[in-house]
Write a structure and sequence with these properties.
Blueprint lengths: L1 E5 L2 E6 L18 E3 L4 E3 L1 H18 L8 E6 L3 H13 L4 E8 L6 H15 L3 E5 H5 L15 H20 L3 E3 L4 H13 L3 H5 L4 E2 L8 E3 L7 H10 L19 H12 L3 H27 L6 E2 L6 E2 L7 H7 L10 E2 L1 H9 L4 E5 L3 H6 E2 L4 E2 L2 H6 L1 H12 L4 E5 L6 H10 L3 E5 L2 H7 L5 E2 L5
Parallel strand pairs: 5-6, 5-8, 6-7, 8-10, 13-18, 14-16, 14-17, 17-18
Antiparallel strand pairs: 1-2, 3-4, 9-10, 11-12, 15-19
Helix pairs in contact: 1-2, 2-8, 6-9, 6-10
Amino acid sequence: MVRYSKCGLPAMTVEIKGLGVKCSECGEEEAVVELRYARKKLCRRCFTDFFVRRVKRTVERYRMFGPDDRVAVALSGGKDSVALLDALKRAFPEQDIVAFYIDLGIHHYSEHLREKVEALTDRLKVPLHIYDLKEREGYVIDDFLTTKFRSKMCSVCGIVKRAVFTQMAKEVGATVMATGHNLDDTVGTMLSAFFAGDFESIARLKPVLKPLLPGQPKKIKPLFNTPEIEDLYYVVLNDLPVQECSCPHSFGASVSRYKRMLDEMERDNPNVKFQLLSVFIKRLVPMYERVKALEGEEEAAVEVRPCKVCGLPTSSPDGICSRCRRVAMLKERGGQRLEVSPREVKAMMDEGRRVVLIDVRPESAYEKERIPGSINIPIAEFESRQRKIVRKLRRKYGRGTIFVAYCYAGRESYPVAVAMRRWGLRAYSLEGGIAAWKEAGYSLEESSEAT
Ligand SMILES: [Zn+2]
Ligand SMILES: [Zn+2]
């Protein structure tokens, strides 16, 4: 059993065990993965071959790259990009492939992912290029919690990542940029754009995007027809190093409505995601592009030019790209701290500021031992009832209150503090948790009687 988390999604659980039948491909090994749409039950080795063959075919059919291209794979450390790099390496062993990783400076999280991508690229012998956002640009993603984008962290992060990856491609001389978008992401986004009448966004989900300006990389999505769950199977069956904890900014976020809808439809029709993909890519997008080309003869096409700040392509009227516009809004670059030490908390209390300590551990732990005066909101409860809890806290303690969440050692309370920030509360996480509090020599309150 493997628990898996992805940005914007709650943990995905997958159980891989023998299906009690022989593999429908080799007839020798026991099958471990069932692919309903393909009517196949495959063993570990045959599934891996099947997966790699599809990636190879996709790259060739859409002419994603040629022998002279330098292909950069954008690694996040998540299952999709990890599976992508490994499969590309197997499908095209002779290709010039490099890996990119952006250290976004997301506390407790980016470091974890960095270790994973280092282990992976070491094993696959792929050169790894790391872009440290803090080092290179002086800010980290967490800093956006002080801006009006605090409720749209995943969107800001996506914009920053896209821009940085394009920049890295230029620095490293990569002509092609591969990302791990899978079938479920692609069709889910297409469906939601379709309901919004946003055909432009649907067209951008094509598996190959030509560069907007000369010198920019071509963007490809070799996994756009690979079901999401198969990326997870692939990573687990091949024992690849992959992300094991989820992003604090996605804490409490739910799966997109359209992805959920597609999963439901898939129960009756195992082919539904492939069918929709084909309608969008083969019918709708070409039709839309023809209409756009016709209109373009009359209307002036949107002009794409280099951003005045960073030089990457933008079509915004003021000539500043969406990344640079957002970064300009950061009031204090790198000044934002979401963690406070026990001493700082004590100091705030001594100054007479209204500080409310929130123990996010389970009730049993709180009952046994807690920081004096703290209240208990277990993390699971906070996650499922965020809105209500935040409204209650605000009503009870008032606007100027400082909330300090704590857990055992500081890891679990961090996403809670981040989520509270998103809701507009002045929240911090206690560095080192209750353990650090104890170590600093401050008193704890113990249960008077254990019943
Ligand atoms: Zn087999
Ligand atoms: Zn820019």
